Amino acid sequence: MSKPIELVLMGAGARGAHAYASYAFAHPGEVRFVAVAEPDPVRRRRFADEHDLDESQTFASWEELIQAGKLADGALITTQDRMHVEPTVAALEAGYDVLLEKPMADSLEGCVRLVQAAERTGRSLQICHVLRYTPFWQTMHDILSSGRLGRIITVEHRENVAWWHMAHSFVRGNWRNKELSTPMILAKCCHDLDLLVWNLDDPVVRLSSVGSLLHYRAESVGPEIPLRCTDGCPIEAECPFSALGIYMDARLLPGPRALAEGETAPNSWPFMTMTNDLTWEGRLEALKTGPYGRCVYRCDNDVVDHQTVLMETASGTSVTLVMHGHSYEEYRSLRFDGTKASLRACFGHQPEIVIYEHGGAEEVVDIPAASSGHGGGDWGTFSSFLRVLRGEEKALTDVRASLESHLLAFAAEEARLNHQVIDMASFRAQAEALG
Ligand SMILES: NC(=O)c1ccc[n+]([C@@H]2O[C@H](COP(=O)([O-])OP(=O)(O)OC[C@H]3O[C@@H](n4cnc5c(N)ncnc54)[C@H](O)[C@@H]3O)[C@@H](O)[C@H]2O)c1
Questions:
Q1: CATH number (domain holding residue 76)
Q2: Which residues contact 78 (CB under 8 A, 6 or more apart)?
Q3: How many domains does the chain contain in total?
Q4: Residue 164 domain-assigned?
Q5: Which residues line ligand 1 (CB under 6 A)?
Q6: In this predicted model, what pLDDT tens digit does every residue of 155-187 receive, in sequence order?
C-alpha cells in the first residue's frame, strides 16, 4: 500500500475533529493528520493527543499554519461559515488541495472568489456535499439519470428539520442569525439544492420563494417567561424546547436513553457544541452562562423557521423545495413524478425508495447499508477526497458544480426578501461579474 496521505486540519470542531478526522483512526494506513490549527486550547490539545501531534504541529489559527509553509498534501477546512473563503484561498495559494465544509462561502462574491482561486491555482477544491456520497443518494442518482421515470414533470423535496435540531442550531446555536452565519436556506439546503442540480441535470431558469420566522420569537410567549430555562421558568417542565430537557437529562432528544442526574454526557453532537466540559456541572454552567441555556423565545435569532422555494427548469419541470424546523423527526421526503413512473422516497432513520410504474409493478428498491454520519456521507466524502489525492479517482463534484447550488440558495433568499421571481440566467451572469 502507498504511504498515507498527509493532511492539515483548520478548525478542530464538531465536523473537522469528529465527523471526518475519525476516519483516520479506522484507516491509519490511508491518512495521517500532520498539523492542526485551532484557537480553542482544549480542542487543539485533544486533537493533538488523539493524532499524536507535538507542539510544533499545532497552531492557534489558520493564519499561523499557512505561515509555516506547505506541510502536507491536502487541507481539510472546517471553520465556521463566515470563515471559509480566506483560509481556503490561502491554502490553495500555498499549494494544498482542499476539502472545504459547506456552505462554500457566506456571500456570492466569496463563492465566485473560491471558484476563481481554484481555477487560477489549478488545485482541487471540493465542497463537503456529503449527501452525494451516501448509498441512498447514489441509488437515487442512478434511478433518476437512468430515464426509468420517463420525462420528469414535477419534483417535491422536503427538508424536515426536527424541532429540537431547529432549536439547537437555528434558534440558540451557531446558525441562528444571518449576520453571524448565513441564511438558513443556504446553511441547511445547499445540500438539497446540490442534489437537485446533480439529479435533474436540467438548469433552473426561474425561481421564487416565501417563508419567515413564525414561532421562535418573543411574541410567542408572555412577559413572565425568563431569559433562561435555568431561571425558574414556569413552563419549563412541559416546554418541548427546554434546554434542561435537551442538554441535561436529554429526555427530549431522540435516542436510546436519557442521562441520569450527575452523569457526564457523551462527547458527541449536540452536547459537544455547547461546552468542552461535558460533566453534569459543566453542562449546567454552560446553560447558565452560554447561548444554549437561553429560552428559544428570547434569543437573537432571525433566520426563518420555514421557507419554500419554487423552481422551473429549462425543460419545464416544476420543483418545490420545502424546508422547515417543526418536524416530529429529522428526515427528507421526496417525490418525483415522471411520464413513465413515480418515485417516493424517504431519507432518514429508515431510508426507503419505492418506484411505481404507470400501469405496472411497484418496486421497493434495495439501498446498500451506510457506515458513518449523514447516512454514510461523512466518511464517503472524506475517503473520496483521499482517493482523488492519490490519483485513484476523479472528484464526484468540484467547486464550479457547487457554485450552482449556492447561487440557487442566494437567489431564493433574495426572492423571499424582495417578493421577486428571479431570472436565473441574469442572476448567474451578475454573480460571475462579481469576481
Ligand atoms: N457537511 C455538512 O453536512 C455539515 C454539517 C454540519 C456543519 N457543517 C459546516 O461545517 C462547518 C463547521 O461546523 P462545526 O459544527 O464543526 O463548527 P465548530 O464551531 O464546532 O468548529 C469550527 C472550529 O473552527 C475553529 N476556529 C475559529 N477560528 C479559527 C481560526 N482562525 N483558525 C482555525 N480554526 C478556527 C473554532 O474554534 C471551532 O473549533 C460550518 O461551516 C458548518 O456549516 C457542515
A1: 3.40.50.720
A2: 9, 10, 11, 12, 13, 15, 16, 20, 101
A3: 3
A4: yes
A5: 10-16, 37-40, 43, 61-62, 78-81, 83, 101-102, 128, 130, 174, 187, 273, 374
A6: 999 999 999 999 999 999 999 999 999 999 999
